[in-house]
Amino acid sequence: MSDQLSTHLSSVWSHLTPIRPVRGEGVYLFDAEGRRYTDFTSGIGVTSTGHCHPRVVDAIRRQAAELLFSQVNIAVPPVAEELALALSKLTPGSIDRFFFANSGAEAIEGALKLARHATGRTNLVVFQGSFHGRTHQAMAMTTSRTAYRHRYQPLPGGVFVAPFPDARRHGGSEADAVHYCLEQLELMLISQSAPDETAAMFIEPVLGEGGYHPAPAAFLRGLRELCDRHGILLVFDEVQTGFGRTGKTFAFEHSGVAPDILVMAKGLASGLPVSAVGASAELMSRWEPGTHGGTYGGGSAVPLAAALATIETLLDEELIANAARQGERLRSGLNDLKRRVAGHADVRGLGLMVAVEFRDEDGEPDKAATKGVQRACLDQGLLLLTCGSYENVIRWIPPLVVTGEQIDEALAVFAEALNRNYRSAVAGGG
Questions:
Q1: Given a cut of 60, is residue 16 above it in pLDDT?
Q2: 206: DSSP letter
Q3: What pTM value is reported for the model?
Q4: Are strands 233-238 and 261-264 parallel, antiparallel or unpaired?
Q5: Residue 73 contacts residue 289 (beta carbons within 8 Å)
Q6: Exposure pattern of 201-234 as b/e (b: 16+ CB <10 Å)?
Q7: What is the pLDDT of residues 176-212, one digit of tens each?
């Protein structure tokens, strides 16, 4: 049956599992035979309120019965204004205007177009390990793995890559790495892209596909100072980190550093396609009317209603606080396992955006062990993803509705995967 189902789908998609889910509930997916799977991928950070949260489903049903679509250039659907108002209450006071699109990549490209219009400059800076999307401009900004750019050159120019402060990669302490990377960034502005031609710096407050590395607060403060000094816009890509994922509404709140432009998607609408670019009214006023747009972004009322219901659910059910609490429980359990497994090299992350990194006895990235442990978890019905430039990181991103009991059950599966498969995975690859 599964082969028949996939016959007419493009082969460009890779597939983690052969599972064909027909129903979702909370942290679980169910196939047609009733088998249950624990989804700690959240559809790559999308199902923030869990699968089919009743409140979100009800909002979708009500909106679908009233209005499906009203093209925003022609007649603005009220739900678009309601969502913009709700977002303005979550974002810093300096960010109070919003442009809606369909995907994270679309929003990234919108943010870049806004930055270029607002500054009159062309170039932009991204950071090593970044992932900003799969459209052509976003690919040019993505440096986490060559697979995302492979055989798509030439890509748009004007993109400059600066080092990200990963202490393990650079050697020394975190403070040393921050100092080095800020120094290199200053050098870039002298040697490669002059400040008066640099429109913006784009950074994920926690690297996503690059390995779930939180950006040190000192580094983000340094970026803020540097951007302010040179009139460069600071853009935070919170596509994966936003809406409670890191235990705060947005990851930048951990550092106290606010962006000029904020990019949002994934967890915003619990599974429906909507993204947003946020900036100040003054900055948005410099975006020439008619120079950017899209058919569906601000007019597809059902995803906008889902986003509004998602925000209300996150707040009313205190899911952001739950993400902080359950994330601490998860990291504690993973650190306990780390002390018992030599190759289990690092546990890091914020809230429910947690990484486990594997390295071999020589300290080299261990992709084989990582994939082996991941497969062992999949065999037991626990869905986990990998990430990192070397594909040696298992990432934990359960829905924010996850309970302590569900965390503990997943940790037990992970412990068994380590105990039963780690040695064979290291030795045999697989």
A1: yes
A2: B
A3: 0.95
A4: parallel
A5: no
A6: bbbbbbbbbbbbbbbbebbbebbbebbeeeebbb
A7: 999 999 999 999 999 999 999 999 999 999 999 999 9
